[in-house]
């Protein structure tokens, strides 16, 4: 399924969620974190933009993990009390990373990545701020 396609049916949403969970799990594995289980009731899927997963690891640690039409990333569970707050933390983290990259490098690829982080951070902040998305 292309990232720009908005899942319209439950089956398409399920496929989208599985695809992006695999992306998140791969990112964790690449960083030496082995997934044990997902706390589904605390995870949120904002397809086609992102999913925020609350996961337990094999080492009895918990993380918020984000994936979707953006970079995959993770934060310790203690950083945020819920998925909405985790989205705000990812937004702030990526804004700071983008600024650090701009100050430290001149490589075009890295500067393009900083721009991507900044664009996605802005989108995440808008998602965090939208009461419509969160039912309040």
- Number of E-state strands: 5
Largest sheet: 5 strands, antiparallel
> How far from one another are the termini?
31 Å
Evaluate the radius of gyration: 15 Å
Total count of helical runs of at least 4 residues: 4
Helix content: 40-55%
Low-pLDDT windows of residues: none
Find the structural class using helix and strand composition. alpha+beta
Number of domains: 1
**SSE succession:** HEEEEEHHH
Strand content: 15-25%
Shape: globular
Mean pLDDT value = 91
Keywords:
single chain; 136 residues; alpha+beta; 5-stranded antiparallel β-sheet; 5 strands; 19% strand
Describe this structure in words.
With 136 residues, the protein is an alpha+beta fold. It has one domain (10-134). It is 51% helix and 19% strand. It has helices at residues 10-30, 83-104, 108-129, 131-134; strands at 35-38, 44-46, 50-57, 62-68, 73-76. Strands 1, 2, 3, 4 and 5 form a 5-stranded antiparallel sheet that branches. Strand 2 and strand 3 (50-57) form a beta hairpin. Helix 2 packs antiparallel against helix 3 (108-129). The longest helix has 22 residues, at 83-104. The N and C termini lie far apart (31 Å).
TL;DR of this structure?
The protein is of the alpha+beta class. The chain has 4 helices and 5 strands. The protein has one domain (10-134).
């Amino acid at each position: 399924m292309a990232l720009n396609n908005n899942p319209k049916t439950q089956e398409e949403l399920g496929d989208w969620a599985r695809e992006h969970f695999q992306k998140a799990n791969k990112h964790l594995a690449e960083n030496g974190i082995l997934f044990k289980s997902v706390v589904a009731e605390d995870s949120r899927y904002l397809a086609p933009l992102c999913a925020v997963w609350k996961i337990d690891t094999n080492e009895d640690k918990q993380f918020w993990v984000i994936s979707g039409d953006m970079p995959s990333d993770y934060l310790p569970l203690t950083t945020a009390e819920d998925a909405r707050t985790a989205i705000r933390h990812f937004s702030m983290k990526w804004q700071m990373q983008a600024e650090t990259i701009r100050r430290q490098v001149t490589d075009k690829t890295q500067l393009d990545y900083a721009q991507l982080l900044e664009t996605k951070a802005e989108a995440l902040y808008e998602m965090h701020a939208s009461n419509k998305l969160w039912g309040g």
